[in-house]
């Protein structure tokens, strides 16, 4: 592939009336790897992706492909393939759906059979979409995004509802797209769902950035730790600093690199800080994720 295209989100804020869906979000998504865009329901993932794709206007900040906003891209279909909420006409065959989309986008029709082959759907090409399983629809949505042979793929919850075989397949497929030098951004509300598929993570919660980094850096975090919170977080931070404890701030409190809550509680006692919670964080990637986004926030 040619040179890669980076997704650049800079100071992005989006408000809908009184609701702030996304607030001062800054991150980049690099080519050559699969990046998971993670956060609980209502965290602002879809709003971010819709803004990136020019479907919403930012209140502040920018969302671009290598510095160019979607509507200014010279060849949008060759630059980015996106599957947000893919809707298919139930009476159309898979091949017909792709033909109609290709024609509307000015893409040569020979791509239709190529992408059907790519997603392993050739034998179902003539079948009506109305009879497709969720997994087949997901594959067709993916095929649609690939029509323009884009350098960037933006996929909203592509793994949701897939069976284990489908998950195995998409995992390998996303990795092969990234190995070709593409930029692959995959949203999900579950870390466990994408954990085998992604190299990097961008985690948001309530519209704000919580964490970016490699999946392995998150795995390092997954050792036993203590979560502590206080009505006065500034005082608590000072007490933790005083005790020489390392921590990161999550929605549910401070995640302290100390497996013994007794030691953390003692540090708070010495600093004369009233605590609102103190518990040991079980080891594990999903626990680590939930602590970062604020456990119990899962349902919007
Ligand atoms: N058009 C809109 N008008 C008003 N509020 C909106 C609109 N779109 C999104 N929101 C609000 O913005 C917040 C973020 O929603 P968004 O759909 O971006 O989150 P999400 O992370 O994609 O969640 P989900 O996984 O449930 O889709 C929510 O509080 C939502 O209700």
Describe the structure.
The chain has 300 residues and is of the alpha/beta class. The chain has two domains: 7-216, P-loop containing nucleotide triphosphate hydrolases (Rossmann fold); 223-283, Alpha-Beta Plaits, CATH 3.30.70. It has eleven helices and 13 strands. The protein has helices at 45-52, 76-79, 94-105, 110-118, 134-146, 164-179, 191-194, 215-220, 233-242, 261-270, 285-293, and strands spanning 7-16, 19-29, 33-38, 60-65, 80-83, 152-156, 183-188, 200-205, 208-214, 225-229, 247-250, 253-256, 277-281. A six-stranded mixed β-sheet has the order 5-6-7-3-8-9, with helices on both faces. β8 (200-205) and β9 form a beta hairpin. The protein is elongated. Mean pLDDT is 89; it is low at 296-300. It binds adenosine-5'-triphosphate. Residues 16, 19, 21, 39, 41-47, 189, 300 line the site of adenosine-5'-triphosphate.
Kindly provide the radius of gyration, computed on alpha-carbon positions and rounded to a whole number of angstroms: 22 Å
Low-confidence stretches: 296-300
**Total number of beta strands:** 13
> What class would the helix/strand composition place it in?
alpha/beta
CATH homologous superfamily descriptor of the largest domain: P-loop containing nucleotide triphosphate hydrolases
Could you tell me the strand content as a percent range?
25-35%
What is the H/E order? Answer: EEEHEHEHHHEHEHEEHEHEEHEH
> Can you tell me the number of structural domains?
2
CATH fold node name of the largest domain: Rossmann fold
User: Count of helical segments?
Assistant: 11
Helix content: 25-40%
**Average pLDDT number:** 89
Protein name: ATP-binding cassette domain-containing protein
Keywords: ATP-binding, Nucleotide-binding, Transport
Pfam families: ABC_tran
InterPro entries: AAA+_ATPase (IPR003593), ABC_transporter-like_ATP-bd (IPR003439), ABC_transporter-like_CS (IPR017871), P-loop_NTPase (IPR027417)
